[in-house]
Write a structure and sequence with these properties.
Helix content is about 40%, strand content about 0%. By secondary structure, it is an all-alpha fold.
C-alpha cells in the first residue's frame, strides 16, 4: 500500500516538474548578464528575482528526490527477502534409498564368448 502511494507521488511529482519547467520563461536572452553585461548590477543580482514557478520547481524536485530515496529503500528491503533464483523456489524431495532398487538383474547372454579368469601372460622375448 505504501509503495503504491509513493509510486503515484513519484509519477505526479515528475509530471509537475516537467510541466513547471516548460511553463517557465527561457533564460537564453539573459545569458550576457552572467558575464557583467546588462542588469548585473540590480538589487537581486544577475539572475533577477526568483519567481513562484522556479520555487515550485525546487519544491517538487526536493519531493521527487526524497521520494526516490524512500522507494529505493522499500524495494531494496523487499529484494533481500525474495528468492534469488527459480531453483530456490523448487521443493527438494528426498532421494529413494539404494536398497530399494527396482532395476531388473542383468540376464546372461547365451551367445557370449567366455573370458578366461586369469590373464594370459605374454611369451618371453627372444634376444
Amino acid at each position: 500500500m505504501l509503495r503504491t502511494i509513493l509510486t503515484i507521488l513519484q509519477v505526479l511529482s515528475a509530471f509537475a516538474i516537467v510541466g513547471l519547467v516548460l511553463l517557465q520563461r527561457g533564460k537564453g536572452a539573459d545569458a550576457g548578464a552572467g558575464f557583467g553585461a546588462g542588469a548585473s548590477g540590480t538589487v537581486f543580482g544577475a539572475r533577477g528575482a526568483t519567481t513562484g514557478l522556479s520555487r515550485m520547481t525546487a519544491v517538487f524536485a526536493a519531493i521527487f528526490m526524497l521520494n526516490s530515496l524512500c522507494l529505493t529503500y522499500l524495494f531494496q528491503r523487499d529484494a533481500r527477502t525474495a528468492p534469488t533464483s527459480l531453483l530456490d523456489q523448487v521443493p527438494v524431495t528426498p532421494a529413494a534409498p539404494a536398497a530399494q532398487s527396482t532395476a531388473p538383474a542383468p540376464v546372461p547372454d547365451a551367445n557370449a564368448v567366455p573370458v578366461p579368469a586369469t590373464p594370459v601372460e605374454p611369451a618371453p622375448e627372444k634376444p
